[in-house]
Amino acid sequence: MDAVQPRIIVQRDDFDIAAEMSQISGQNRNIGAVVTFSGLCRDEAGTLAALEIEHYPGMAEAEMTRVAAEVLDRWTLTGLTIIHRFGLIKPGENIVLVMAASIHREAAFNAASFLMDYLKNTAPFWKKEHLNTGEERGWVEAKTKDQDAFKRWHSL
Amino acid sequence: MTKLVYFAWVRERIGKGEEVIELDPAIVTVSDLLAHLKTRGEEYAAALEYENVIRVAINQEHVEHDAFVKGATEIALFPPMTGG
């Protein structure tokens, strides 16, 4: 079996989940499972106008590629797509997409979960909140629970 | 010459996104660099006040504060990441 080439994209524009699904299933017919995770912008109970996502161009792609390589080393996948947006994102819009394909479901579920825990902690993106009042609430703080979710993979 | 790049609130507090500096040979590790930058003015001191939360990448790869800076072409300083 040929090595899977992950599809890694950092972009300002929205992505099309159905098109990404076709892209994955079109390149390999030995896929029994595709796990899709999409992260959306919340409105924080109606208070948030938008998230502004800053990224480190170059390193964002490099880090996503490194995490993808680790995932492909750990689980046998038949397809992998990671897309992360930057710029101004409004509530209800997509922020991130992880799509992991495998022959059976377990590898795809685990790979997608691992990827999200890793991306949150190691991919160079930062969120700033803009409120409906026109004010900036400031930069989102990194959460302990995200760090704990990241660390649990080291003990497995 | 070494390019320094800053992101999120580190960038905002320092007041610029990037700059090019000459690394003094006395600056051996990332910790030395942070200590040196803090002497460059109030804005640097404010940005780097809580030194242990500052994350660092050399040539676009994460490193710890004890990493050597020699040969680095690009050093990035930023807060903990909040993507995803």
Automatic annotation (TrEMBL), chain A:
Keyword Transferase: yes
Pathway: Cofactor biosynthesis; molybdopterin biosynthesis
EC number: 2.8.1.12
Highest rank taxon of the organism: Bacteria
Top-tier EC class: transferase
Pfam families: MoaE (PF02391)
Reaction it catalyzes: 2 [molybdopterin-synthase sulfur-carrier protein]-C-terminal-Gly-aminoethanethioate + cyclic pyranopterin phosphate + H2O = molybdopterin + 2 [molybdopterin-synthase sulfur-carrier protein]-C-terminal Gly-Gly + 2 H(+)
MF annotations from Gene Ontology: molybdopterin synthase activity
Alphabetized UniProt keyword annotations: Molybdenum cofactor biosynthesis, Transferase
Family in the record: Belongs to the MoaE family.
Record text on subunit structure and interactions: Heterotetramer of 2 MoaD subunits and 2 MoaE subunits. Also stable as homodimer. The enzyme changes between these two forms during catalysis.
Summary of the function given for this chain in its UniProt record: Converts molybdopterin precursor Z into molybdopterin. This requires the incorporation of two sulfur atoms into precursor Z to generate a dithiolene group. The sulfur is provided by MoaD.
Full protein name: Molybdopterin synthase catalytic subunit
Highest classification ranks of the organism: Bacteria, Pseudomonadati, Pseudomonadota, Alphaproteobacteria, Hyphomicrobiales
TrEMBL record, chain B:
InterPro entries in the cross-refs: Beta-grasp_dom_sf, MOCS2A, Mopterin_synth/thiamin_S_b, ThiS/MoaD-like
A Pfam family recorded for this sequence: ThiS
Keywords, alphabetical: Nucleotide-binding
Source superkingdom: Bacteria
NCBIfam families named in the record: moaD
Entry's family note: Belongs to the MoaD family.
Protein name stated in the entry: Molybdopterin synthase sulfur carrier subunit
